[in-house]
Design brief:
26% helix; binds ribulose-5-phosphate; Rossmann fold; 220 residues; Alpha-Beta Plaits; alpha/beta; six-stranded mixed sheet
Length: 220
């Protein structure tokens, strides 16, 4: 079974959790794109969406799905997003698409975070995927030096600017044994907007598309 098939299975399985007459938080990436396409079928029965990126906003609007302002709605019942890596504790690395900051905001503002992914994303230890860190441009060199002190090898994501006008440093070579601690340490570096560890606010449910069907994991 291909990764794309696994992504589609997970994305479509998430539709089971979408309730009528609610506002849905929508993440970013190729798996979420499949969720958006499925969501289009019930666009008349939801109150709208909160988008985590300009790319998702464009796809939602192309389908005629309303995109609302987070400041105009209260707590969201549901947020659906992908991940680059997940542990069995549902702590994640996200931000491969560079949308980590808005994704973290929408996840924080949601009661339930369902992560959709193919089974290749499940790992024992986070860090095989380079950890994205969104940084204010003038702080690039300083933040990079601080990330080296934490044991990583930061690389500038070349030619990329986030939706917030910032840069991304992808941090290679980390073996993340204490995700909550590292998430806090990196976020405490002046100039860091946020990093792609979702450990303080992990997912609540992981839907993994696999050859055996959709596996449902909750934090152990
Ligand atoms: O965090 C993300 C974007 O910032 C994505 O959720 C993550 O990169 C997974 O993407 P895909 O579904 O394409 O594998």
């Amino acid at each position: 079974m291909s990764a794309d098939q696994g992504k589609r299975m997970a994305a479509e399985a998430a539709m089971e959790y979408v309730e009528e007459n609610t506002v849905i938080g929508v993440g970013t990436g190729s798996t979420v794109n499949l969720f958006i396409d499925a969501l289009a079928d019930m666009k008349a029965r939801i109150d709208g969406t909160i988008s985590s990126s300009e790319a998702s906003t464009a796809r939602l609007r192309k389908h005629g799905i309303p995109v609302l302002d987070l400041n105009e709605v209260g707590t969201l019942p549901l947020y659906v997003d992908g991940a680059d890596e997940s542990t069995r504790f549902l702590q994640l690395i996200k931000g491969g698409g560079g949308a980590l900051t808005r994704e973290k905001i929408v996840a924080a503002a949601s009661e339930r975070f369902i992560c959709v992914a193919d089974e290749s994303k499940l790992v024992d230890v986070l860090g095989g995927f380079p950890l994205p860190v969104e940084v204010i441009p003038m702080a690039r060199s300083y933040v990079a030096r601080e990330l080296v002190k934490l044991g990583g090898r930061p690389e500038l994501r070349s030619g990329f600017t986030t939706d917030n006008g910032n840069i991304i440093l992808d941090v290679h070579g980390l073996k993340i044994m204490e995700p909550i601690k590292l998430e806090q340490q990196i976020n405490n570096i002046p100039g860091v907007v946020t990093n792609g560890l979702f450990a303080l606010r992990p997912a609540d449910l992981l839907l993994l598309g696999s050859a055996d069907g959709v596996r449902k994991l909750t934090a152990e």
